[in-house]
């Protein structure tokens, strides 16, 4: 949105924006100058919901909790809704009408025609009827019009619920324990009466209803508690009888002990089996050492062989010594003794190296080990048998407990459910009793009192009316601005067409549309001078576009038919003639009528030129009517001959201006454009571009002959 354009629109209608709020202020003043004074009275009810001093519980609850705050807000909302219910509002209506009927000399409001029309007997009957309805707390409805027109009387005085509700306000401020009741009227005593009566009656009725509801709840809960107690006792007695009959003291504890014993014995059995396997492996290893295939002889057999060799050598040494002695100590015998002694020493050394310890001792140890392992193996087997017997006994005992456990669980579950139901009902019964005795107690903390009149709202009403009227004016102008698609300036036209705009011509009144007078007397009138200068600017742009290639044929068209276009084409022709140029203007009857004001002959036609190839020139401007008796341009001559004719005309004239028909009209404008060297299009300010015009805009934009737009009739400031 163009803010500047919108501001221009506002400035354009500034006097309207000033006048309408001024008129509105004056009319508002006439309405509010005799506005009666209003009096407001206020009463406050204390609920005790947020007052710690009225809480019975030792600890003040945490009021920051979201759930608790929601619950408390609901209670406040319920209180305010109940106060405005038809039942309570009807009671207020009864009290107000009874006051005025019983005090005709001092009513809250001037008596209505219906009340004045009551006779003494009818007045007494009405008072009795209203008192009866008040005692019964009957709701007043529009159908309560019997012999005594109850509803009509109340409504005529403005005491009916809808009328009172308009001036009645019931509110609660956040984090406050008070409910505020406000009423505004033209009588301060009426305002006081309404807030105090409504508050007092509501407190009484609400307390009675609350106690009545609590009593009903207590009766129902008492009956339910007694029934639940009987069911609970029955279920507990059944559980007790089942335990006694099946000799069950504490089944959970007993089963836990037995199960733990089974686990302990299972652990012992597992350890015994591990020990049994270890002993069997050790015994097998000992037996392998004593009786294995790799040791077929008894331990010590190798030692006996070595000992026999030693004894044999010793005997030989002894025999050799004897022979040596008996032989007389011969050297040969000595050598034999030494050799045998050497062999004996060698055998003794070898025997000593191979047997550090006695192998018979090792064999004895293995035998003892085998005996010990056998004894331990028998003990382990015996302990496993004992463990299996004990496990069988414990499992049998545990299996006998399973059916009892299922039965006990069933009876315990039933007893627990019955006990829970009883305790829940008992808790609700006690809570209801507590709420009845110490529950919500409304109090009239502050009564309404007479007050001075409220500040006058005359200025406020007048200010609001002025603001509203100004806002409405701005909204209307904004809607007009948004919906207005008209183009009024050169910049808007360039933006809408996406093409060049070579200039603009300001608006000239129809009575002043004489270019000869404008050109000669422009200095006298401001608008004419502006038009003359803008026309010169457009002439310069056209000259610049034509002089590039020394072109002389200029066409002027438009999107739609425009009355202003004739004057603008005539003005351009006149402006170019002022440059002392020979101008040929080709146009229709409309342009002929405009040119005739300059005493220029308009009787020559293009059809004559096509036939005779001759044309009578005037001094500066020559007019040629382009009417061809219903035939198009190419239907009169072929294209090449028409070009020859225009070439001849270009030699005779400095500029040829052709007044073309609108692009969106039914005409041969496209044929004429073929013979123009450049052309421009005019647009009337204030018009809008339609969807139909979009295709023509695209064609113009893509055409190299098109030099731009000329916007006519621009209203200058």
Question: What can you see in these coordinates?
Answer:
The chain has helices spanning 3-12, 14-32, 66-83, 86-102, 113-116, 120-136, 150-156, 161-167, 188-245, 251-291, 301-326, 331-354, 359-438, 458-483, 490-497, 515-521, 526-547, 563-577, 589-595, 606-612, 633-636, 639-652, 669-674, 691-702, and strands at residues 39-46, 168-171, 178-185, 443-446, 501-506, 553-558, 583-587, 621-625, 655-659, 678-684, 706-714. With 717 residues, the protein is of the alpha/beta class. It has a 7-stranded parallel β-sheet with strand order 5-11-10-6-9-7-8, with helices on both faces. A 4-stranded antiparallel β-sheet has the order 2-3-1-4. Strand 10 (678-684), helix 24 and strand 11 form a beta-alpha-beta unit. Helix 10 packs antiparallel against helix 13, helix 17 (526-547) crosses helix 18 (563-577) and helix 18 packs across helix 19. The protein is flat, with a radius of gyration of 65 Å. Residues 57-63 and 293-298 have low confidence and may be disordered.
Give a concise summary.
The protein is an alpha/beta fold. Helix content is 64%, strand content 9%.
